[in-house]
């Protein structure tokens, strides 16, 4: 019998149950994937809590996973039973097996194990589109990245450094700041020790940064704007501390700033674009540009405990759930 993590109503981690689960047979254009590993992300907590709309009567959280194809429906080309694949979706990954549209899957190179693949599909593709599309970086620029010791942050630090971009990060505590420095950041500011704006401005000789990649939200957005140089870009791509309450367009007037609130799934909706971005991600891993870090693994059955650890900021790097 297969198993799944489900929630029947929005709530805290206690809303999650480990239950028997029977995935349907794949239909036309669909594939059944048996999971080898499932990634954990803040977006999972947003759906579980009700911050993001539920996709149905019950919720199966989980937004990235890797495994093998177990069955193929009619009309599917280019994918075969036994083939290793990975994917990212908004929900539905926290189960031992599931059915997905074939065009949401990307073939997984043999050199990338399931645990690593499940840790980089959402986070790695997020880093890729942030740098190439939300604010396309250029060599010699300086950017600020919040949550630099998190899953996306550690990938961004390495990738930005490889592109000749000076990255300043923020993280909480000596352990996390040291981890971020070891992953490409030129400077890392401990936000627990005080305000981050003054150190950022000092590090840039008062000029500010070209862009801020902010996944924290309420606790950081005002400071993020204050760190930007004139005509800089505020990229708000998450809200781990809550939505940026009180933000107004007039806040951008000082310095003719720009702001964007991108969502990964708008950048991979087209299957060809998904494959192109995934190919760049996998190549960066294969070449050693990126060294993904799995900070901790949990049994899939203990997803609720993993949610608690993530929300309390007790994690570093990526967290992976094992069926």
From TrEMBL:
Organism domain of life: Bacteria
Segments forming domain Enoyl reductase (ER): 11-321
SUPFAM superfamilies attached to this UniProt entry: GroES-like, NAD(P)-binding Rossmann-fold domains
Record keyword Oxidoreductase present: yes
UniProt keywords, alphabetically: NADP, Oxidoreductase
The keyword Metal-binding belongs to this UniProt entry's keyword annotation: no
InterPro entries: ADH-like_N, ER, GroES-like_sf, NAD(P)-bd_dom_sf, QOR-like
Name of a matching Pfam family: ADH_zinc_N_2
GO cellular component terms, semicolon-separated: cytosol
Coiled coil start-end: none
GO molecular function term, any single one: quinone reductase (NADPH) activity
Protein name, entry field: NADPH2:quinone reductase
Lineage of source species: Bacteria, Pseudomonadati, Pseudomonadota, Alphaproteobacteria, Rhodobacterales
